[in-house]
Write a structure and sequence with these properties.
The chain is 18% helix and 33% strand. The chain has 17 helices and 68 strands.
Length: 1201
């Protein structure tokens, strides 16, 4: 029977028998998403370009990655437990990154590496972990498997099947849970009812991913329905029932109460615990884990976000569930965390949501284990310790791009609704100095600027076709023909998103029935747009692989000449309104299909962009079948002059210089001082200040969208010269009769410099400069840019510069990032010919700092590079340009800086750990190729002699308290080297970890010294004296009321403000009142002073306080006060003692007190004659006290032998 069950389960787990047509690939990335990434990366467009460059530097994004999986060296593993989590997380991340690298590069080695990882884990048959672990284990690997399965044709079906079987072993069922060994699905299918919500969410995210990958609608719905808090699918097993039965425990704190689960009721099927959206993100945006800590609160919400993206890709809108509850939760979390470190006009102080303010909810979560009391900035129970502060430390997680991609770019919500997410994105970009990074293995989406950043205007996604109303996503890559009915898809109503249609429904009744664009069957097959009305439009996402000239054609049918079309790309109109023709050789009716060339040789830039088709003119004049985008006229030149990339130093317009003088010919303006200079919008003579006797020079850059032949035309009344990229192409002396000159040059795309010099000596001034080229009709220069003078001006270098040299300083130590080297002692200094590691004596773990100068001949933007293993950083004029820090294999990083002509200081800091090491530094710019700094030109200075240094050590103005935190003594060396410290008494104070640690009270000397290094002589030491005091507690001792002889023992009533300090009392006259067993006991009539004091400790002084006690006579006589009513014998005693109770009291107790005044035991005297067992007592002296209520009947000393 068991064999039959397993066979049945396996069959059900293999095939899609459940009806839903899934989108593939369709977890976090559809095919169109992958194509967007690839196209933008190949086009070199930001932020995709830099984010992809960051991805390529990950060691687990390499086909050389070493698989950690259990099946290695031919050994199969079937068992998975908690110890397996680390390896599978690393392998899953590596599989995911390699899958993405495969898609971008088309290098099959990446795909094969991912498959190697899948196969390594496909032998697992028994999983023994909590749901959290299994959920973390699978997500990334499933993301990878989904991409590889649907984009790489060489993953063998047998291997795919083995991987699927591993996921659900011994098979999937919606009606019964299998016996025996079970794999991942059976660990995660119920989430986790007994823990915080993030743990169940980890599990259900992998359930959702598994359902999509396996084409199993029931598995997918299990996660989808649970996320919405819905009952289980009728074809599936129920969710856990409830509610829980709990009991309060004492492990809570001021932020939450904690309970333990003692059982469960079965009164509510599908109880739904913390792992649903509304149970995890409450109606105010507060997370179920907000009272736990901020890391987990962000983590759970991030998991929900990734599940929302998966569901959206499958056509289900969970982003919008419960009125965008996900976004509400993110805004709450980001507001609380960001406002802790930053202020804004609308939030100047940190936001503190409280129960009293109505912004925090006090509630017991669905697991029953935690009741939120207030928001927790710490880590769970590790509170009030800066080391465990989580507030404001997790707002740089790689999440905002995914969220903004939906709520901002897809939905265009009011920006007030995602204000804090937007702030998080901007602040994190600034704080990181770059785009979203990898994040953790399992918690968050990663590399959001590559994976989720959407192009301008792209609310929807490109589709190739629809089958049964299910889209087939895919990019329209030029050249291509797009069926007009395949406008961009939007999961919800696409009207005013991916199209605008004036009708409420699809009046054609065909093809895309969920949208209101009118579509009908086409008379020549397929479908066409119909009912096109003026003012309507449609969007199509296209990819232009190479910037160039393109021709737009449409296939249309018309019944009048009154309809019009207009095309825009990337928000820029590329055509005018084009009349759709009718009659003659053109279309003669709505079934007469013809081709219309809308525009020829329009320029399209490379990259993904929106093509928008606008309908105008008279409505219903024509119909559209398809749109063709074909390559236009090819470039007519081969060897083009190279351009430069856009610069942050550019501003629109041109830079001009105005000169005045009396010249007979055009002078060399470079040698003259301009009377006026500035920026203007174009080349013209309006800036001349007189009608003749002046000259003008214009400098700037012109942007060419395409490679091709460009002809420049100049017209002038007198002499004019034109330079392009530093080459003089037109030289006109003003003598020719035809004053229009021209020159044709072959230019590559990007920016090209130009310079124009002109002079005029007559009143008939004339000057114009025009051009024409690919896609450009003859006209005035456009796309002109001037360079703003660089702020980094040159410096006056030292007089003793050594050409071809650079100074270095060598350190030894082990670091994980570049330290502040100037505070470390240098082992050696010297001079070297280049920035490299060919320096004698370097070890395996060391640091180097190179300092020198470069000479910039031509001002402008320069790109600097460092390639290093491990970290490096390059600065120019003390401005960081290249950040290549951290422990990493060899990698290259770059940065750009604008430099004015002249000398500039350059510094390269570097550290290495381990045997593998390398370092180089390069530069390129202004058309100059990339070369090593040593080839560009380095300058150093002679190695200096050791310099003197001094120590500054301020006096201590006030004593320290013994409980003060570790502190920096405050001494500094003029060399910036770290100061060393010693103390005169280590029992009071000693130096450790860079700070002074107080361990006792007293007076101590602190000696500051600095021993010098390869650069500096030793400094003279300085001594400072510090007093460290104990704390002074405060005792409060209220007055004591008058007592009588029959007063009961009473508490003296003193208190101390320090909880753990022990109080002790003494009486000036024990005959009046005596302190015993923690209370005062009246002994006789009279007055006595009672003094209370605390016992001195290592941290606290002893203080005291005194009150008077007055005892007076009264008329009440104590009962049974005759001591002879109690007899005790023998004394001394060995084992047993007899106590004779002759009193008439029945409520009599016997106390045994040791010599330390501690109560050893008590017992009731229920008889007249009582035997007391003393065998367990140690030898010594004891007090035997017999009392009735508060009256002592006997108080006798005995000796125990």
């Amino acid at each position: 029977m068991k064999l039959l069950l397993i066979t049945t389960l396996l069959v059900l787990g293999v095939f899609n028998l459940y009806g839903k047509d899934f989108i593939h690939p369709g977890l976090s990335h559809k095919k169109s998403d992958l194509e967007r990434m690839k196209s933008q990366v190949l086009a070199g467009i930001e932020p995709w370009k830099s984010s992809y460059a960051d991805l390529t530097q990950k060691t687990d994004a390499s086909f050389n990655y070493n698989v950690q999986g259990p099946t290695q060296n031919g050994n199969e593993a079937h068992y998975f437990d908690e110890s397996s989590l680390g390896p599978i997380q690393k392998d899953g991340q590596a599989a995911y990154y390699n899958a993405l690298m495969w898609y971008v590069t088309e290098d099959i080695r990446y795909a094969e590496k991912a498959i190697e990882i899948f196969e390594a884990w496909s032998t697992i048959r028994y999983v023994k972990t909590i749901p959290l672990t299994s959920g973390k284990a699978l997500w990334r690997m499933l993301e990878a498997a989904e991409i590889i399965k649907h984009t790489y044709g060489d993953w063998e079906e047998e291997s795919i099947q083995s991987f699927k079987e591993m996921l659900v072993y011994p098979g999937w069922s919606g009606t019964q849970v299998p016996d025996g060994d079970k794999s991942f699905y059976w660990t995660i299918y119920n989430g986790d009812k007994a823990r915080h919500g993030n743990q169940g969410l980890f599990a259900f995210r992998s359930v959702m991913a598994m359902g999509i990958f396996m084409d199993n609608e029931t598995i997918y719905n299990r996660a989808l329905r649970h996320l919405q808090g819905l009952p289980h699918d009728e074809n599936d097993l129920p969710y856990p029932s409830g509610p829980p039965i709990t009991q309060l425990v004492d492990t809570g704190n001021e932020y939450y109460e904690e309970y333990k689960i003692v059982g469960y009721e079965d009164t509510i099927e599908d109880y739904i615990y913390n792992g649903s959206i509304e149970n995890y993100i409450w109606e105010n945006g507060q997370s179920q884990e907000s009272a736990r800590d901020q890391a987990h609160a962000f983590g759970g919400i991030s998991i929900i976000a990734t599940m929302c993206e998966m569901a959206w890709n499958q056509g289900d809108d969970i982003y919008g569930f419960s009125d965008n509850r996900l976004l509400l939760g993110l805004e709450f979390a980001y507001r609380y965390n960001i406002s802790y470190n930053y202020s804004f006009p609308d939030q100047e102080e940190p936001w503190e949501p409280t129960v009293a303010s109505g912004e925090f909810i006090e509630r017991t979560d669905r697991s029953g284990r935690w009741k939120s009391l207030k928001i927790n900035p710490w880590t769970a129970h590790l509170i009030h310790d800066e080391e465990y502060l989580t507030r404001g430390k997790h707002d740089q997680i790689p999440l905002p791009q995914l969220i903004l991609g939906h709520y901002k770019d897809r939905l265009h919500l009011d920006q007030e609704k995602y204000k804090w997410v937007n702030r998080a994105d901007s602040l994190a970009l600034e704080a990181r100095g770059g785009y979203e990074n990898a994040g953790t293995y399992t918690d968050h989406p990663s590399f959001g600027h590559l994976f989720y950043h959407r192009i301008k205007g792209a609310e929807g996604d490109p589709v190739q076709s629809f089958t049964n109303q299910v889209p087939t996503f895919g990019m329209h890559t030029l050249p291509t023909t797009i069926e007009a009915v395949n406008f961009d898809h939007f999961v919800l109503d696409g009207n005013d998103k991916t199209y605008f249609d004036l009708s409420d429904t699809n009046e054609g009744g065909e093809y895309r029935l969920d949208q209101s664009v009118d579509i009908e069957e086409c008379s020549e097959g397929g479908y066409n747009l119909t009912g096109l009305e003026s003012g309507e439009w449609l969007n199509y996402t296209i990819a232009v692989p190479v910037a160039g000239l393109y021709t737009i054609k449409v296939r249309y049918a018309s019944e009048s000449t009154d309809g019009k079309l207009k095309f825009s790309f990337d928000g820029e109109d590329k055509t005018e309104e084009i009349t759709v023709p009718f009659g003659g050789e053109d279309s003669q009716g709505m079934t007469d299909w013809k081709e219309l060339v809308v525009a020829s040789d329009i320029i399209l830039k490379e990259g993904v962009q929106i093509m928008k088709v606008n309908i105008s003119g008279v409505s219903n004049s024509f119909t559209l079948k398809n749109i063709s985008l074909e390559e236009g006229t090819p470039s007519d030149c081969e060897e083009a002059w190279s351009g430069i990339k856009a610069s942050d130093n550019f501003q629109e317009g041109v830079y001009y210089q105005y000169f005045e003088g009396d010249w007979e010919e055009l002078p060399n303006l470079d040698n003259l001082e301009a009377k006026e200079e500035g920026f203007t919008d174009n080349i013209h003579l309006d800036i001349a200040q007189k009608s003749s006797g002046y000259a003008l020079q214009f400098d700037g850059y012109i942007n060419m969208d395409l490679k091709g032949s460009y002809t420049f035309y100049t017209t002038s009344d007198e002499a004019l010269n034109l330079w392009i990229d530093g080459e003089k192409v037109i030289e006109y002396d003003g003598s020719q009769s035809n004053n229009e000159q021209q020159a044709t040059v072959c230019l590559d795309k990007d920016y090209h410099s130009f310079k124009i010099q002109y002079f005029n000596q007559s009143d008939d001034a004339e000057l114009s400069v025009m051009y024409e080229g690919p896609g450009i009709k003859k006209g005035a220069l456009t796309s002109l840019f001037a360079t703003v003078p660089c702020e980094n001006s040159g410096i006056v270098p030292p007089e003793d510069l050594l050409k071809g040299q650079i100074n270095y300083t060598y350190y030894e130590g082990t670091w994980s990032e570049i330290p502040d080297f100037k505070t470390y002692s240098a082992k050696s200094i010297g001079i070297h010919s280049s920035v490299d590691l060919n320096i004698e004596g370097i070890q395996t773990s060391f640091g180097l700092v190179f300092n020198g100068y470069i000479n910039i001949a031509k001002g402008g933007e320069y790109t600097f590079y460092t390639a290093s293993d491990d970290g490096s950083r390059l600065s120019v004029d003390d401005v960081e340009v290249v950040d290549n820090d951290g422990l990493h294999p060899s990698q290259e990083r770059s940065g750009v800086i604008c430099l004015a002509p002249g000398y500039h200081s350059v510094s390269i800091e570097y550290f290495n750990v381990g045997s593998s090491k390398n370092l180089s530094a390069s530069v390129e710019g202004l058309g100059q190729p990339k070369v090593l700094l040593s080839e560009f030109g380095l300058y150093g200075v002679p190695v200096p002699d050791k310099q003197a240094q001094t120590i500054t050590f301020p006096e201590f103005d006030e004593p320290k308290l013994i409980t003060d935190e570790d502190f920096d003594p405050g001494a500094t060396a003029s060399s910036f080297l770290k100061v060393n410290y010693n103390t005169s008494d280590r029992e009071i104070l000693y130096f450790i970890g860079g700070k002074m640690k107080i361990v006792g009270a007293g007076t101590v000397d602190i000696i500051a010294s600095q021993a010098g290094d390869a650069r500096f002589l030793p400094a003279e030491s300085i001594t400072r004296t510090l007093v460290i005091s104990k704390l002074t507690p405060i005792i409060t001792f209220p007055e004591i009321e008058t007592k009588t002889l029959d007063s009961k023992d009473f508490d003296p009533g003193a208190t101390i403000n320090i909880e753990d300090l022990e109080l002790t009392y003494s009486s000036s006259d024990d005959a009046v009142v005596e302190y015993i067993y923690g209370k005062l006991r009246v002994r006789g009539i009279g007055e006595a002073e009672v003094t209370v004091s605390n016992i001195e400790t290592d941290q606290y002084k002893s203080v005291s306080a005194t009150q008077k006690v007055v005892v007076v006579q009264d008329n009440v006589t104590s009962i049974d006060s005759n001591p002879k009513t109690i007899e005790i014998y023998p004394n001394p005693v060995i084992d047993f003692m007899k106590v004779i109770n002759k009193s008439n009291n029945q409520n009599v107790e016997l106390e045994i007190i040791n010599s330390a005044s501690s109560l050893v035991s008590t017992s009731k005297l229920n008889k007249v004659e009582n035997t007391i067992d003393l065998r367990k007592l140690q030898k010594g002296v004891y007090i035997i006290r017999v009392r009735s209520d508060n009256t002592v009947l006997s108080n006798e000393k005995i000796i125990k032998k």
